[in-house]
Design brief:
single chain, alpha/beta, 2-enoyl-CoA Hydratase, Chain A, domain 1, Lyase 2-enoyl-coa Hydratase, Chain  A, domain 2, 2 domains, 6-stranded mixed β-sheet, 3-stranded mixed β-sheet, 11 helices, 13% strand
Length: 296
Amino acid sequence: MDFTQIRLAVADGIATITLSRPDKLNAFTGTMMTELIAAFDATDADDAVRVVIVTGDGRAFCAGADLSAGAATFDYEALGSASPMRADGTTDYGHDAVRDGGGRVTLRIFASLKPVIAAINGPAVGIGATMLLPMDIRIAADTARFGFVFARRGIVPEAASSWFLPRVVGIAQALEWCFSGRVFDAAEALSGGLVSRVVPAADLLAEATRIAREIADNAAPVSVALTRQMLWRMLGAASPMDAHRLDSRAIWSRGRSGDAREGVTSFIAKRPPAFPDTVADGMPDFYPWWEETEYR
């Protein structure tokens, strides 16, 4: 796929996805949504990719939804989308036209087989903030600013953030940021748990790459892919017994793998590991273990 509003580059095991509408502060559009989903499809399918970094072009990460449609910005039907209205005048809320575009992106990131690092280079507001939530490691430049501004625009949090945000920062902090809709700085994002570190803007990509390199050079890709889904999905588990059942399957399966043998022998030999298994053909036979119908 030829991208027009993002860039995708792969080098030495690391894929970098760059939101690229710098003249519009990388404001989110339907095209960007489609391209981001396609980019994560591509990184999942490429066994050369071990880690994904997401960043923005220019001085912003993503300034939120493109507001060029003015008052109709969030009225999908007014913008020409298919109508979800039934003949009797009621709304079919299961219609595809009702679906939130930001949510399509966050669900795709959530499903990623590769770990995702956010390198937040500037303002991340609205969908620019909520798309960060299913990313695994969030690093902010000291110039970054954040805002869950939905109530100030007369709408509500989107992109499945009502699930993600309280799990990432806790319910009280999530409610405060969403109720007020105010924009806050990187220091507050760090103290509130939204990001794990703040670095000088000039060092942002180097720090993201350093973390990505540590994963790519030392960790088994299948183990990372499995671990990512285990930890995220167990956030909704009813009991630690659910985790015990899953852990037991995973340890039994991975313990018999070539990766496990290589992990032990390389450690004993004090040499870098060369893990033989790939995500394309090395996932255990119980994966995916969840039973649900997921939007894509």
